[in-house]
Amino acid sequence: MLHQDQVEQARKLLAYLETRTTATADGVYRNEVSDYTCPKQLARERELFFKRGPFTIGLSCLLPKPGDYMTHDYAGVPILLVRQADGSLRAVLNVCRHRGARVAEGSGAARDFSCPYHGWTYGLDGRLLSRPDDRSFAEIDKAGCALRELEVVEKYGLIWLSPTPGARFDMDAVLGGLDRDLATYGLESYHHYETRVLQRRINWKVVIDTFLESYHLSALHQRTVNPILYSNLGTFDAFGRNLRLIFARRTLGELRAKPEADWRLIPYSAVIYVLFPNTVFVMQGDHVETWHVFPAGNGIDESVMYVTLYTPEPALTASAKGHWDRNFDLLMATVEKEDFPLSEGMQRGFYSGAQDEVLFGRNEPALQHFHKSVKGALAEAENEPKKRKMDNEAVRR
Ligand code: FES
Ligand SMILES: [Fe+2]
Fold first, then answer.
1. pLDDT tens for residues 242-284?
2. What span, in angstroms and rounded, lies between the C-alpha atoms of 150 and 72?
3. 388 pLDDT higher than 80
């Protein structure tokens, strides 16, 4: 975050602290319970957010060197990402053009990809290099048998992709003005520490909701997070469909003793972004943590997420590793013992008929923004064919 933005946000937080208030929305928002239980909505979300995308995969350091590759299957589409010799990144469908087998598994470093079924071999760029008994496929041009390419963009040290071949996306629209913050973090030079995968019986949006207010800290996290962060206090800003929340650490007041020119807000806060639709990106002062959430199984009340911790310096010593392990364990203990068991109870309650709506208070503007954005995106996608038809008719007239 730019220094001037840090000062502006710190001023806001200090004022909220004094007046015992927080960033607010205009009114209470009623969110239909069906948002978390409707199979039809889930099908539309899968199609739009996870099939068409784009969404972010993580930081560029997941694939630091030429030849590094990783598979990604969480979106329901078999994706293969490969770092090229020139340092650029390519994404392809992990589907052999002979009969459809997966050409790569897991992650690692490779010189080429040889399909385990009949041995068709592809280069790092996805081109078909060779196929055993080539004569038997003579009338099928090799050049037309490359792995199907996907649009992938690396910007500010983050990777975005769309899992639909031929789909394009406009990064300016995707970022919605978040460049201003993301460009300042130097994420290009961060290092991957560890990724953990969790599966829970909750709708994927409930996982995102978990991060979108600090109202619950004093009740649910009384002993874990509440001693560190102020409860029910934070700034909120929308960046297109993305959003930013800044929660204040209890040390925030120390800033008052310093001249504004020396203010650095990051060590006194937790800066939480939703990179729409399914990534929560947390700038934690001395490290970054990301949550990438996807529908799993039936998708309505099952989700899978991978959580990654990135550090500004590689963790080389035992003491550095111990430090980050403790950090990660504490984070996991909080969500696994406090947030997600509670969320699973909510999800079961959604089916009870107790109510048709849940409430997002004025003090929960980020929840309101996230759910309005989901609905807005789905409505826009729904209207697209109609709009295209109208545009075509207008052209014909
Ligand atoms: S399916 Fe890959 S070589 Fe046959
Ligand atoms: Fe929580």
1. 999 999 999 999 999 999 999 999 999 999 999 999 999 999 9
2. 13
3. no
How far are the Cα atoms of 60, 83, 226, 338 from residue 218, in angstroms, in the given order? 36, 45, 5, 12
Q: Who lines ligand 1 at CB under 6 A?
A: 96, 98-101, 115, 117-120
Residue at 139: amino acid letter: E
Ligand 1 atom with the shortest distance to the CA of 115: 2
Choose one of 80, 92, 118 to mutate for the ligand 1 pocket test, by most ligand atoms within 8 angstroms of C-beta: 118
Residues lying with their CB under 5 A of ligand 2, a single-atom ion: 339
CA of 195 to the centre of ligand 2 (A): 20
Model confidence pLDDT, tens digit, residues 165-192: 999 999 999 999 999 999 999 999 999 9
Ligand whose nearest atom lies closest to the CA of 218: 2
Q: What tokens appear for 142 in the block?
A: 């090799």
Burial profile 218-250: b = 16 or more Cβ within 10 angstroms, e = fewer: eebbeebbbeebbbbbbbbbbbebbbbbbbbbe
**302/340 Cα distance (integer angstroms):** 12
Whole-angstrom distance, CA of residue 148 vs CA of residue 142: 13
> How many residues are there in the chain?
397
Tokens of 106: 């897991």
In this structure, how many other beta carbons lie within 10 angstroms of the beta carbon of residue 362?
14
What is d(CA 57, CA 76) in angstroms, rounded to the nearest whole number?
Answer: 14
Distance separating alpha carbons of residues 211 and 188, to the nearest angstrom: 25
What proportion of the chain, given as a percentage, has pLDDT over 70? 99
Condensed to tens digits (0 to 9), the pLDDT of residues 298-309 reads 999 999 999 999
Chain mean pLDDT for the chain: 96
- Residue 397: predicted pLDDT: 66
Global pTM reads 0.95
Q: Please state the rounded mean pLDDT for residues 98-122.
A: 98
Query: Look-up: residue for tokens 């208030």?
Result: 21
